[in-house]
Amino acid sequence: MITAPGELEIRAFPLVPPAEGWALLKVLASGICGTDLHTFRGEIRQYVGTPHERTISYPVICGHENVGTVAALGGEVLDAEGRPLRVGDRVVPGANVACGRCPSCRARLPYYACERLEDYGNSLGADRPPHLFGGWSEYMYVLPGSRLFRVPEGLPDAVAALAEPMAVTHGLEHVEGGVAGAAVYVLGCGPLGACHLVKARAMGAVQVYVADLRPARLEVARRVGAAGAFLVGSTSEDDRLAAIREATDGRGADVVVEASGSPDAFREGLRALRFGGTLIEVGAFVGSKPATVDLAADICLRDVRVLGVGGEDDAAYAPTLRLLAARWQELGVGELVTDVLPLARAAEGIARSVRSSGEGAARTGRGGVRRWVPAASPSQVDHGAGEGPGDALHGLDLGHDELPELVHVPRLGADDHVVGAGDVLGLGDPLDLADLLRDLRGLAHLGLDEDVRLDHGHLLRSGPRC
């Protein structure tokens, strides 16, 4: 759990039977999303500029990209399709719980317009009993009214955990005329951009081009079907636009997905569009610098549509899971999951994210992982009716030569810490522990945009997220 900016603890809480309408999940996989990393860094204002802007409170157990099995139920609990759930069912819980009663909900606006919104791993803090409201835990409680989506047989847990970011790609389904046969340009090819690449290909796009600052991301994009990849910094904006126009007989891209949150990328995306094209802005969440555009030349006189997407669509989860189950191997989705780490090495996973983002230990600050509190083993966890936080064991101050272990967490062998394209992202190389801990102490002041997935006692890391 995150107790303050840059501070991580592992703490034991009692497991209590779920109340009426609640569910308890045994977590199989969870993700460290860019939003979680903003929380870790201390950037805790969310939905900035909207009527429901809020500030996240510490402590919080992050993790909203989750998959798990039902461990216990408080009476009858239905899945998203209205079928009763049973202990042992594998499900993906929707990341957000809208109230369903406020004017925004009654008008069927997106969940992030809800006036009483709750989010797993965000608004639901660890100080609220029964405490376990995020996927960075062995177990997770699910509120009444949450949407629980069954995971198809045969779909790996690590891939099922991508259902939430894949559900954010619903903007592609609102493109006038559809995406089949289209030329698509994705700016920012972290996991969210890569999910749009995968979705566009699945929908029949004939050309998908990507641009990013990091060669590793572009290599992954090529392996999952990008027709072309531009390294920002080694190519100019004019070079990239000329290449897009040449590939589209001078017209420009039919669809642009801006997944980096960069004002410069937004402006470039508008210039890359053909007349009447659609730009999907999906990269901005915690606030960004203003983008300067020519309203006439860039939008109005070219009949451009701009579609803002602030999060996933609940209606997209079930079809996303069906798509992944049917085509995840064909579409190369497994390439997006690159690394597996045990839960006890969660801090290392975050540090690897910093390294892959190119920021490293050169910048340091006051943050860091100051204290780890090892959780009790399952046999030590209180399964009674109490709701207190339990007696957490005293932890260790992290020096340069030790990372505490959790005895009940499965360990990986020396040869199975990398899954998929880990070596391509430079994750197969050994890490110097002293360098790692120096990195961790600077995390609160670094720009963190990586995805890491927690796989019941393990972290699965996918590529960087814009």
How would you describe the overall organization of this protein?
With 466 residues, the protein is α+β, with helices and mostly antiparallel strands. It has two domains: 2-156 and 330-464, Quinone Oxidoreductase, Chain A, domain 1; 170-311, Rossmann fold. The protein has helices at 34-41, 103-106, 157-160, 163-167, 191-202, 215-223, 237-247, 263-272, 295-299, 314-327, 346-356, 433-441; strands spanning 2-4, 7-8, 23-32, 45-46, 54-55, 66-73, 90-93, 96-97, 118-119, 139-142, 148-150, 183-187, 207-212, 228-231, 253-258, 273-281, 305-308, 337-342, 371-372, 396-397, 450-455, 458-464. α11 crosses α12. It starts with a strand and ends with a strand.
The radius of gyration over CA amounts to 22 Å
What's the rounded overall pLDDT mean? 78
DSSP strand (E) fraction?
Answer: 15-25%
CATH topology of the largest domain: Quinone Oxidoreductase, Chain A, domain 1
Head-to-tail CA distance between termini: 23 Å
Query: What does the largest sheet look like?
Result: 8 strands, antiparallel
